[in-house]
UniProtKB/TrEMBL annotation:
Sequence positions that bind Mg(2+): D14, D108
Keywords noted in UniProt: Cytoplasm, DNA damage, DNA repair, DNA replication, DNA-binding, DNA-directed DNA polymerase, Magnesium, Metal-binding, Mutator protein, Nucleotidyltransferase, Transferase
HAMAP family recorded: DNApol_IV
Gene source species: Flavobacterium psychrotolerans
GO annotation terms (biological process): DNA repair; DNA-templated DNA replication; error-prone translesion synthesis; SOS response
Function: Poorly processive, error-prone DNA polymerase involved in untargeted mutagenesis. Copies undamaged DNA at stalled replication forks, which arise in vivo from mismatched or misaligned primer ends. These misaligned primers can be extended by PolIV. Exhibits no 3'-5' exonuclease (proofreading) activity. May be involved in translesional synthesis, in conjunction with the beta clamp from PolIII.
Domain called UmuC: residue spans: 10-190
Alphabetized Gene3D superfamilies for the sequence: 3.30.70.270, 3.40.1170.60, 5' to 3' exonuclease, C-terminal subdomain, DNA polymerase, Y-family, little finger domain
Residues at the active site: E109
Entry annotated with the keyword Protease: no
Known cofactor(s): Mg(2+)
Gene: dinB
The protein's enzyme class: transferase
Cellular component aspect of the GO annotation: cytosol
Name of this chain's protein: DNA polymerase IV
């Protein structure tokens, strides 16, 4: 690792099957049963699956129909994002009892920099253990954690002992850990990239480490530089407690495909109202409106328009989106519509979203 950069104590906390676990906690009748949040046996996609459902191969982004085929006893539950956010806020309050250096990635996971912490505890592992225990006692859910010197390794480590476990990768163990790690478990290496690496003879971290920077950049572009560094334990991205919001969106998947623009306009008005609520809540406005269309054959299309001024009002969002809708004829029936707002005022003002010897 590069000695010119300080070694930090980073914890990555990841809630276990968060949405599904919240549903099981709130409804005891669902406990111990295979649960899918989102979708149904006819259409839609799974947003989250309980561990009981995962045993059958049910995963997020899987179609509801296929999920039901994999697990005939699967129970579908409608998502309650307000409830998930409520629980997430309770968990983040616990994080802030230990450090203000908290970078949320989503409602169910976050990075914490505890190099200097409010408890004066020199052990990041003990802090992670205490946080997980508090989440269980005060919220009623289990969490897993990864602990190491940077965000990349902490993120990878949090998946090792899931669910309800933690894994510490001390500085002296980092290189061996990464060399032995299957390439598919490297954070940032998705399914397509994994297959490409397999074709190039890269199956483990050691295989990756044996490739030159030139080789990796030739085959993976800018990502090649990232792969070259992280397999050597080099990842200098800091935990950023003030994250800048770059996009706000709302979308809806319909129970029946829409075949007429008239019906689509009706739905877009509702989506615009939902988006306005989110924008007003955080005092966000933007200039670029994007209409997202997903057709019945699962192909996607995006149409955008940039205005000369910031907007957040539902009427302006709706009128701009309606204009984009009629820009060209639909090529098929539509199963999903969404509106997003980019080029936000958060790019000019920050919005709160969110070698040393260590005792790990």
């Amino acid at each position: 690792m590069q000695e010119s950069h300080p070694v930090r104590k980073i914890i990555h906390v990841d809630m276990d099957a968060f949405y599904a676990s919240v549903e099981q906690m709130d409804n005891p009748a669902l406990q111990g049963k295979p649960v899918a949040v989102g979708g149904n046996e006819i259409r839609g996609v799974v947003a989250a699956a309980s561990y009981e459902a995962r045993k059958f191969g049910v995963r997020s982004a899987l179609s509801g129909a296929l999920a039901k085929k994999y697990c005939p006893d699967l129970i579908f539950v409608k998502p309650r994002f307000d409830r998930y956010k409520e629980i997430s806020n309770k968990i983040r309050k616990i994080f802030h009892d230990y450090t203000d250096m908290v970078e949320p990635l989503s409602l169910d996971e976050a990075y914490l920099d505890v190099t200097l912490n409010k408890k004066g505890n020199p052990s990041a592992s003990l802090i992670a253990q205490e946080i997980r225990l508090r989440i269980f006692n005060e919220v009623g859910l289990t969490a897993s954690a990864g602990i190491s010197v940077n965000k990349f390794i902490a993120k990878v480590a949090s998946d090792i002992n899931k669910p309800n476990g933690q894994k510490t990768i001390a500085p002296s163990a980092i290189l061996v850990f990464l060399e032995e790690l299957p390439i598919r478990k490297f954070y940032g290496v998705g399914k397509v990239t994994t297959e490409k690496m397999y074709q190039l003879g890269i199956f483990t971290g050691l295989d990756l480490k044996n490739k030159s920077a030139e080789f990796l950049e030739k085959h993976f572009g800018k990502s090649g530089h990232f792969y070259y560094n992280v397999v050597r334990g080099i990842h200098n991205s800091e935990v950023k407690s003030d994250r800048i919001t770059k996009s706000v969106a709302a979308e809806h998947t319909f129970d029946e495909n829409l075949t007429s623009e008239i019906f689509m306009v009706e739905r877009l008005l509702i989506i615009a109202e939902q988006l306005e609520k989110r924008l007003k809540k955080y005092n966000i406005a933007g200039k670029t409106v994007t209409l997202k269309i997903k057709y019945s054959d699962f192909t996607q299309q995006a149409r955008s328009k940039t205005l000369p001024y910031f907007i957040s009002d539902k009427a302006l969002l709706f009128e701009t989106t309606k204009e984009l809708l009629y820009q060209e004829r639909m090529k098929n029936s539509v199963r999903l519509l969404g509106i997003s707002l980019n080029n936000l005022n958060t790019e000019t003002k920050k919005m709160v979203a969110v070698q040393l010897k260590f005792d790990f």
